[in-house]
């Protein structure tokens, strides 16, 4: 069975300071850089620059509702491209109840044209297979249609990157069902890397992934599970079987390294998802 190529994400401070990051991944692997709204542009640019200098493909997050002004957005994108070699980004809603500035949604940010002007050629947008407490499923599908239309008019290679979860069939059903709604963007499925179950429950609660919390709490009743922890193979292997189906939009996995960056990278290398010939930069 063919292995799905993988990307991974890091916090800005981790990108700048981690001694594990050099040589940990094949050259060209997509490394997403998170943005929770607390790091200044200097830090975010430095993080992307180190990821780039280490031979990886930096993918900085742009959390739309956490952005302040159009001028600040323009400056940040310009610096990312000119100082850190960024050509790929992830643009998400940002999850705030009230916007921090001018932008209320991802489309508000995309419609500025800033990414096209500064040479961004690839982009991830958010997918929610388990739904979101912030909007309805209908609203989510309409938003993806708008982002697909943006991809076609801008020429940017847009993909869907999902939240993480633990029900492989549910995630695959959601991805395969997009076609019925007129959406044919490639899908990168979010998965949690190897970690202890209490750690995953904490992050699932922080991210508002309700169904995943129930799944994890049920599994935490097992002493074996508490001792051994979560194995991503329980999710990834079924996803790879579904991805092998004709017309499946699933093309990658995106790893959230809650149990540690090195541990996740070692698991990916062992399973062959970080082979340099098929690493995450090779295709959308």
From TrEMBL:
One GO CC term, this protein: cytosol
UniProt GO molecular function: FAD binding; methylenetetrahydrofolate reductase (NADH) activity
Gene Ontology biological-process annotations: methionine biosynthetic process; tetrahydrofolate interconversion
Catalytic activity, as annotated: (6S)-5-methyl-5,6,7,8-tetrahydrofolate + NAD(+) = (6R)-5,10-methylene-5,6,7,8-tetrahydrofolate + NADH + H(+)
Cofactor: FAD
4Fe-4S as UniProt keyword: no
Matches recorded under InterPro entries: FAD-linked_oxidoreductase-like, Mehydrof_redctse-like
Record bears the keyword rRNA-binding: no
Pathway: Amino-acid biosynthesis; L-methionine biosynthesis via de novo pathway; One-carbon metabolism; tetrahydrofolate interconversion
Signal peptide: none
Keywords on record: FAD, Flavoprotein, Oxidoreductase
Family to which the UniProt record says this protein belongs: Belongs to the methylenetetrahydrofolate reductase family.
Protein name: Methylenetetrahydrofolate reductase
Organism of origin: Tianweitania sediminis
Phylogenetic placement of the source organism: Bacteria, Pseudomonadati, Pseudomonadota, Alphaproteobacteria, Hyphomicrobiales
């Amino acid at each position: 069975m063919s292995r799905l190529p993988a990307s991974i994400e890091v916090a800005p401070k981790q990108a700048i300071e981690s001694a594990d990051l050099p040589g940990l991944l094949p050259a060209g692997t997509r490394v997403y850089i998170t943005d929770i709204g607390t790091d200044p542009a200097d830090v975010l640019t430095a993080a992307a620059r180190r990821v780039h200098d280490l031979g990886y493909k930096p993918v900085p997050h742009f959390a739309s509702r956490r952005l302040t002004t159009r001028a600040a957005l323009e400056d940040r994108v310009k610096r990312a491209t000119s100082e850190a070699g960024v050509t790929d980004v992830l643009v998400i809603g940002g999850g705030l109840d009230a916007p921090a500035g001018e932008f209320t949604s991802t489309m508000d940010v995309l419609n500025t044209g800033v990414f096209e002007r500064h040479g961004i050629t690839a982009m991830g947008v958010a997918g929610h297979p388990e739904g979101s407490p912030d909007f309805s499923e209908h609203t989510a599908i309409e938003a993806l249609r708008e982002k697909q239309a943006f991809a076609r008019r801008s020429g940017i290679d847009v993909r869907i990157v999902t939240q993480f979860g633990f029900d492989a069939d549910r995630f695959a059903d959601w991805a395969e069902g997009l076609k019925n709604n007129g959406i044919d963007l490639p899908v990168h499925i979010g998965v949690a890397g190897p970690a202890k179950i209490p750690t995953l429950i904490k992050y699932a609660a922080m991210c508002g992934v309700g169904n995943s919390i129930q799944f994890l709490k049920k599994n935490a009743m097992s002493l074996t599970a508490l001792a051994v922890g979560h194995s991503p193979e329980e999710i990834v292997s079924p996803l790879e079987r579904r991805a092998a189906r004709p017309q499946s939009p699933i093309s990658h996995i995106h790893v959230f390294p809650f149990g540690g960056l090195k541990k996740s990278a070692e698991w990916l290398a062992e399973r062959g998802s970080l082979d340099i010939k098929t690493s995450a930069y090779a295709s959308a």
